[in-house]
Amino acid sequence: MSDTNVRPVPGDFASEAHIDNETYHEMYRCSIEEPEVFWAEQAKKFIDWESPWSEINTFDFMTGEASWFTDGKLNVTVNCIDRHLATKGDQTAIIWEGDDPEESAYITYNELSEQVNKLANVLKSRGVKRGDRVCIYMPMIQEAVYAMLATARIGAVHSVVFGGFSPDALKDRILDSDCQVVITSDEGLRGGKKVPLKANADAALRHCPNVHTCIVVERTRGLVEWNEKRDVWYHEAIAEAKDYCPPEHMDAEDPLFILYTSGSTGKPKGVLHTTAGYLLQAAMTHKYVFDYKEGDVYWCTADVGWVTGHSYIVYGPLCNGAITLIFEGVPTYPDASRFWQVVEKHKVNIFYTAPTAIRSLMGAGDEFVTNTDRSSLRLLGTVGEPINPEAWEWYYKVVGEERCPIVDTWWQTETGAHMLTPLPGAIDMKPGCATVPFFGVQPVLLDTDGKEIEGPGEGNLAIKASWPSQIRGVYGDMGRYQETYFSAFKGYYFTGDGARRDEDGHYWITGRVDDVLNVSGHRMGTAEVESALVLHPKVAEAAVVGCPHDIKGQGIYAYVTLMSGEEPSDELRKELISICVKEIGPIAKPDYIHWAPGLPKTRSGKIMRRILRKIAANELENLGDTSTLADPSVVDDLIENRLIR
Ligand code: 6R9
User: Fold this and answer.
1) DSSP-assigned letter for residue 158
2) 49, 100, 267, 323: most buried by Cβ count inside 10 Å?
């Protein structure tokens, strides 16, 4: 299995990069063999501490417990703001690019400081204390960043909920972590369309009696309902607030944020991240993986509602004193040229996006790209799902003009920061390959018995030892934490992904091996969509699997069995789609609804998803063993009526 398609790091790039091949190997060796030395050095280099740690790291992967920089004291916002003010007060911290191409704003570090301090004081005045949870449900505007940092400044814990989630999904997340304050905006604006955030929040808050304060940013001035007791206009509250709020002294292991993500079972889990280790790995990877240099304009197109937005729009770049661009809109509005117009307008040097966006823009035609000036670009990145070689080639040739290395970064909400990725000056690229581990990361491939696979091979991707930005728990449910991540393979963190290791020792992610879908880079549990579908009174049973989709990577294919006497109809199909939108959000719309008279089950009643996945993918040659099925004839029927051919 030799991989001939190796792309050397473009020459000019390698000679000026922070880390070349030899340095990578030496630093990686040190990070594994002398972790005390390695991490002490990096922690001093990247972070300002109020008082030092007593121990670098302890962990136990039988239980998942981990502690980094134990007893160290720091505040994340001092690192992301205060310490830059003396030298960079007037430098831009955030470039905001509005949905409307005519709208943009430049926020300096001084302005960022003022806004964050004022909002921190507002939160305090509403009774928010260290350790309290604050829910942030915002569009992509600078106030979303202020809200995260203001929460961190006073030692509270933010839980950002993606603005595309429905009121029900928002309500579940608010209740699960008992947030008592919500920060939102009147409406969001995406692709020229309004998103009714405040109305959604109102609907959610009807079921959240503990929420005493809802701070509302004025974005569109759309009409909103107002609850005098609970609702506060952001601009009015800020106007009266003092512009300095002393940072809370946080312990390295105090929680920084909760971020909900989907797993293979049940409701989304509140992934808990703590302070120092998270910040360090976010900042280090931002510098080394993107080869960030002082003054670079850096743009990550993610939404702050996802972990990519947390680590690579907010914490990593701001900790490094970078210029970080946040974009309110969508890649195709006003037209498919928008990303590249923004690159040209703001002279973006580093650009980080998802394969799904690349594929959809690729489909629109090259002129949308080539009509723009992208000469400022130096490096491209991708994240969220495996990138197919065609999309990689297009990104490399058409967008980056074969001048910019591409970093294919594999990581997860739970890992907090990059785990597998080429360092651009050090590791030659292979289209579709996440290549090598970042410093301190020890990946292994395990066979089904949990034995480590040596050399080239394919297996379950697991991690052998703790890394600084490791998940520290599932909020409020440590049992679920251990069960999900540390029980499948004793003594390892299990990622839920499969991977292949080639002859160079490089890792190729093959996708999830559990019941988690990756739709346009968004994680979704099949169980979540199924629970939504069965809420409909006419539905007896539903089984959801992923199917191939040209743009989204994976589409949602739902097999639905109706109650006896009920008939399929277009009307019912629409009702089922809207139930998914209501329960989860527009990202959960099934692409296919297959009316299934029955589902293939084992005699013990377990749905054979393997078969359903194959039928949905139209891969019929190899259905595997069907002899354990209670009624093998259901399979023939499903095949005959399959929706993808
Ligand atoms: C950061 C993020 C995590 C899952 C992960 C994997 C997939 C992410 C990838 C990738 C192949 C890459 N994934 N990056 N697969 N190559 N470069 O996306 O976090 O939303 O938690 O998703 O996404 O399957 O397990 P999250």
Assistant:
1) E
2) 323
Q: Which residues are part of a known binding site for ATP?
A: 384-386, 408-413, 497, 512, 523
> Looking up tokens 């312990």, which residue turns up?
251
- For position 437, what pLDDT does the model report? 98
518 lines ligand 1 (CB under 6 A): yes
Ligand 1 atom 15 nearest Cα: 385
Which residue minimizes the CA distance to atom 3 of ligand 1?
Answer: 412
Q: Which atom of ligand 1 is nearest to the CA of 420?
A: 17
Q: For residue 558, what are the contacts with CB-CB under 8 A and spacing of at least 6?
A: 529, 530, 533, 542, 543, 544, 576, 590, 592, 593, 594
Kindly state if the Cβ of 410 falls inside 6 Å of ligand 1. Answer: yes
Q: Is 226 exposed, middle or buried (0-12, 13-18, 19+ CB in 10 A)?
A: middle
Q: What is the pLDDT confidence band of residue 307, given thresholds at 50, 70 and 90? A: very high
Q: How many residues does the chain have?
A: 645
Q: In whole angstroms, give the CA distance from residue 283 to residue 469.
A: 11
State in Å, rounded, how far the first CA of the chain is from the last one: 31
The pTM of the whole model exceeds 0.90: yes
Report the distance separating Cα 195 and Cα 311, nearest Å: 25
Residue 37 tokens read as 């030395």
Least Cα distance to 487 among 268, 265, 240, 243 occurs for 265
Q: Is residue 411 lining ligand 1, measured as CB closer than 6 Å? A: yes
CB 509 less than 6 A from any atom of ligand 1: yes
CA 382 to ligand 1: nearest atom:
17
Closest residue CA from atom 2 of ligand 1 = 412
> Does any ligand 1 atom lie closer than 6 A to the CB of residue 384?
yes
Burial of 379 from C-beta contacts in 10 A (0-12 / 13-18 / 19+): buried
Q: Which of 327, 332, 337 is nearest to 103 (CA)?
A: 327
Mutate to test the pocket of ligand 1, among 518, 554, 587 (most ligand atoms within 8 A of CB): 518
Torsion of CA 351, 352, 356, 359, to 10 degrees: 30
The Cα 253–Cα 272 span in angstroms is 11
List pLDDT tens digits, range 241-295.
999 999 999 999 999 999 999 887 778 999 999 999 999 999 999 999 999 999 9
Sheet with 269-274, edge to edge strand ranges: 231-233, 213-217, 181-185, 133-137, 157-160, 255-261, 269-274, 473-474
For residue 308, the ligand 1 atom closest to its alpha carbon is: 1
Tell me the CA distances in angstroms from 203 to 187, 207, 208, 217, one per residue in order.
Answer: 14, 8, 10, 17
Which long-range CB contacts under 8 A does 442-449 form with residues at least 24 apart?
442/32, 443/419, 443/499, 443/507, 444/492, 445/499, 445/500, 445/501, 446/489, 446/492
What ipTM score was computed for the predicted complex, to two decimals? 1.00
421 alpha carbon – ligand 1 mean position (Å): 12
Running DSSP on this structure, what letter comes out for residue 10? P
DSSP 39: H
SS3 label, residue 40? helix
Instruction: Report pLDDT digits (tens) over 491-519.
Output: 999 999 999 999 999 999 999 999 899 99
